[in-house]
Structure formats: C-alpha cells, structure tokens
Amino acid sequence: MKILVVADEESSYLWDHYQPGRLSGIDLILSAGDLKPEYLSFLVTMANRPLLYIHGNHDAVYEKRPPEGCECIDDKLVSVNGIHILGLGGAKLYNGGPYQYSERQMERRIRKLKWKLHRTGGVDIVLTHAAPEGFGDAEDMAHRGFEAFLPLLEQYKPKYLVHGHVHKSYGVHTFEREVQCWETRVINASGRTIIDYI
C-alpha cells in the first residue's frame, strides 16, 4: 500500500506545478496538520483516494472551512484496508492557542482510546502533529514532543508514527525525515514523502 504523507508546507510539486498522474499509485493520503484546507481538498480530488487528517496547532481555520472530501480522525481509531490508524492532533501547550495540549491532557486523550485499541488488537500507524519526545522533536517549548506518546509506542508497537510540526523552513532545527523509536519508524511528514506500507 502506497501512502502519501504531508504536513506543514504545501508542496508546489503537488499543487502549483501539479501535472496529471503525479498521484497515480497512491492508495491513501495522511495529513499531519498545518496545511491549507484547499490544499487537502485538491489532493483528495486529484488522487481520488481517502485522505485522513488531524489538526496541527495552526489549523483553527478548519473550524469554519474544513477540507472538503477529507476525514478528520482526531481522537479516533480507524481502519483502512485492514490498517489501523490512530489520530492524535495538536502540539504541546506553549501559548494557549487552539489545538495545544498539556502532557496530562494528551495522556487523557490516549487513555480514552485504550478500549478501542484493545478491541482492535492495537494500531499500525499513529498520526500526530507533534513528535514523540526525544524522537524527531526540537528543544524549544513550541516544538518539543509529547512524552505521552512513548508508552503508547512501547505497548502497542505500531509500525509507524507519522508527525509534522518540525520542518526545514525554521532553519535552526535539525530536520530528520526518519528516526527509530523501539520498533516504530517515526516519519516526519513535513512537505511530502511516501511510505510503502507492506
């Protein structure tokens, strides 16, 4: 299964300079947040495949203009072609803005999903905006990852955690497309990348 993952920065290759066929072969699109709703609507239309998204910390506009044809999976566990995908949007609380959470709030969100995780036998992909703490995050308060994600990864051993929030345009951050956290591949979806899910 070929999965396009996107976050934070609209890809001119897929939008401004889009050419027919560029999304052929894509089976699923995952958005890890902070993208224009029009961009997601464009991608889901051109690919004609499901697009699942969670909120980034700059996605307040989605309340008035949600991406058309796309499905928000914040605080949900969904299944696509037998792949279980868990959505946990938002960033670490740093200035009280929308879609920001304390560690305790994120722990509570995860705890509410435990029954669904148990019933489905776990999760294959965790879709988040922030990274797990210490794995692809940054040192400043706004871009520090959630410690609450670590027990989730340790217990359920998902194949992937896909996040955004830390991206090249900041310049000061070390950008790593992929890091390993125990048995989970942590993928930074900033811009765009492809996952070949086997």
Secondary structure layout plus pairing:
Elements: E1 2-7, E2 28-31, H1 37-47, E3 51-53, E4 71-72, E5 76-80, E6 83-88, E7 91-92, E8 100-101, H2 103-112, H3 114-120, E9 125-128, H4 149-156, E10 160-163, E11 178-181, E12 184-188, E13 191-196
Parallel strand pairs: 1-2, 2-3, 3-4, 6-9, 7-8, 9-10, 10-12
Antiparallel strand pairs: 1-13, 5-6, 11-12
Summarize the structure.
With 198 residues, the protein is of the alpha/beta class.
Q: What features would you highlight for this structure?
A:
globular; alpha/beta; 198 residues; 13 strands; 6-stranded mixed β-sheet; Purple Acid Phosphatase, chain A, domain 2
Mind explaining what this structure looks like?
The chain has helices at residues 37-47, 103-112, 114-120, 149-156; strands at residues 2-7, 28-31, 51-53, 71-72, 76-80, 83-88, 91-92, 100-101, 125-128, 160-163, 178-181, 184-188, 191-196. The chain has one domain (2-196): 4-Layer Sandwich (Purple Acid Phosphatase, chain A, domain 2), CATH 3.60.21. The strands form three sheets. The protein has a six-stranded mixed β-sheet with strand order 5-6-9-10-12-11, covered by helices on one side. A five-stranded mixed β-sheet has the order 4-3-2-1-13, covered by helices on one side. Strands 7-8 form a two-stranded parallel sheet. The termini are close together. It contains four helices and 13 strands. It is α/β, with parallel strands linked by helices and 198 residues long. It is globular and about 45 Å long.
Number of strands: 13
Total helical elements: 4
Name the poorly predicted regions: none
Rg (C-alpha, Å): 16 Å
Provide the CATH superfamily.
Metallo-dependent phosphatases
Report the end-to-end length measured between terminal Cα atoms: 6 Å
Which percent range fits the helix content? Answer: 10-25%
